[in-house]
Amino acid sequence: MSKWLLRGLVFAALMVIVRLFQGALINAFETKAGMISITLVALYAVVVLIWGYADGRRDARANPDPDRRSDLAMTWLLAGLFAGVVSGLVAWLIGLFYKNLYVEGLINEVTTFAAFTALLVFLFAIIGVGLGRWLVDRKTPQQPRRRDGDDDRADTDVFAAVRDDRDGVQDYDNAATEQHTSPVAVAEHDEETRRNS
Fold first, then answer.
1. What's the CA gap between 123 and 159, in Å, rounded?
2. What is the rounded end-to-end Cα distance, in angstroms, of the chain?
């Protein structure tokens, strides 16, 4: 099973559970509906954040080079979209039989509510991933970058060719300067020889 599908299934199921709890609690405490909804969504977001954090730490430890790390943003985006659409569809189906569940029409459930769930999952997962990677990178000592004698990347170093060309120009300038000064030095030496004789 792919990473995004596993996460999508887990958070789709969790969102359906959250909505079932929301319906039951609001029916029991109608005056606290806003606080109940906010608290349940916050708990859902915390679970997403923790999973994203674990993903970020695991990826940073497996790949110390940031350029070689997994594309967790796409994984979590797909997971969020899947969780949103599936949870909206399942909640709508449950709402046909369980009237205490607060659901809207099918189109609204698989579009508006799905978009909210997808954004919630993606946003908090990416925050968790970034936090996990940052904490691992902060504790990892920086590797010194080799400049001279870095032969293993010489074939892909674009600036190596430019440096070589500049060295060649300097060598040519030095040789030309020596050639221009050599006849003058010889002439001065001849003049001094004539005077002495």
1. 39
2. 100
**Count of residues in the chain:** 197
Residue pLDDT, tens place only, 38-87: 999 999 999 999 999 999 999 988 888 778 888 899 999 999 999 999 99
> What global pTM score does this model have?
0.68
Output the six-digit token pair for 62.
């497996």
How far apart are alpha carbons 83 and 108 in whole angstroms? 15
What whole-number distance in Å separates Cα of residue 78 and Cα of residue 126? 12
Q: Are 26 and 33 in contact (CB under 8 A)?
A: yes
Residue 44, classified by CB atoms within 10 Å of its CB into exposed (0-12), middle (13-18) or buried (19+), is: buried
Strand, helix or coil at 144? coil
168-180 burial code (b ≥16 CB/10 A, e <16): eeeeeeeeeeeee
143 and 67 Cβ atoms separated by less than 8 Å: no
149: left (phi over 0), alpha (psi -120 to 50) or beta: left
| Alpha helix (H) residue ranges in the chain | 3-28, 33-62, 72-97, 106-108, 114-139, 158-196
Angle at 52 between CA 79 and CA 2, to 5 degrees: 40
